[in-house]
Write a structure and sequence with these properties.
Oligomer: single chain
Strand content: 15-25%
CATH architecture of the domain at 92-303: 3-Layer(aba) Sandwich
Pfam families: HTH_1, LysR_substrate
Structural class: alpha/beta
Order of helices and strands: HHHEEHEHHEHEEHEHEHEHEEH
Family: Belongs to the LysR transcriptional regulatory family.
InterPro entries: ArgP, LTTR, LysR_HTH_N, LysR_subst-bd, WH-like_DNA-bd_sf, WH_DNA-bd_sf
Keywords: DNA-binding, Transcription, Transcription regulation
Domain HTH lysR-type: 2-58
Number of helices: 12
Amino acid sequence: MMDYKLLQALAAVVEQGGFERAALTLGLSQSAVSQRIKLLESRVGAPVLLRRSPPVPTLAGQRLLNHMQQVRLLERDLLQDVPMGEQGAGQTRLRIALNADSLATWWAAAVAPLCEEQGLLLDLLTDDQDVGLRRMRSGEVAGCVCATPTPVAGARALKLGDMRYLAVARSDLLATYFPPGWKAPAWGQAPAIVFGSDDQLQHRFLANCGYQGEFPYHLCPSSEGFVRMLCAGIGWGMVPALQIIQELEQGLLREILPGQGVDVPLYWHYWRNGGRLLEQLTQQLASSAPGLLGKGQASAFPS
């Protein structure tokens, strides 16, 4: 039988990014947390953590974390059905990974009703939409929004819709680098803005335009900062249509190639045995996300 105090220590170390912060969260000494991890490894017969900064779960550790995630959610259901004294189910915190652009646009409106109704607390981790699934695989989160359709073992995937990205820039930058009659090599001169090293949207867009070469770029790992840099004329970039409806309507930003955007599919991944709360969140996203994402499609090319 598993000792859940040991699993709780493992989850705390991974979620808090280290032994010291895990000890503060659990109200233990750092030495006590370390001893629990060593005892867990002794019982499992294999390492559960790679002692890096931050610590990374091994394959065995990932399976234990996945199990712990599901136990927490199922325990909530049990406390609702069979209240133990005055303890009750209380508030539940879900760790969710999603791309920063979803967080900056449709996510809050989609989940707000459930958070209010169920007293749900969210611990949100941001990753690029192409790599967010690694959080599920490592057992760090109960669900994630990403662009990958294939779920990890023990999970399901549900398509929420497509997020429309537009290549935009400020008018003066367009006039400088993309004057009338400009040709494909201009992409190699105009500075772009890229969200991070995993962001391939610009590359995908340029490939669709027939350009395969290098291009100068700024790195800006912030959705809000990304739009501010675009509006300041620092560079061009791929940004969700949902996020710049007002800037397009006011003429502050303009599409470089009107009508040529990139649609990124978004999928919700969640554990099969995640309990009622995770199922309720899934139903909430299934009913609300498609309509919210569709507003980006409708507003992509305002008159």
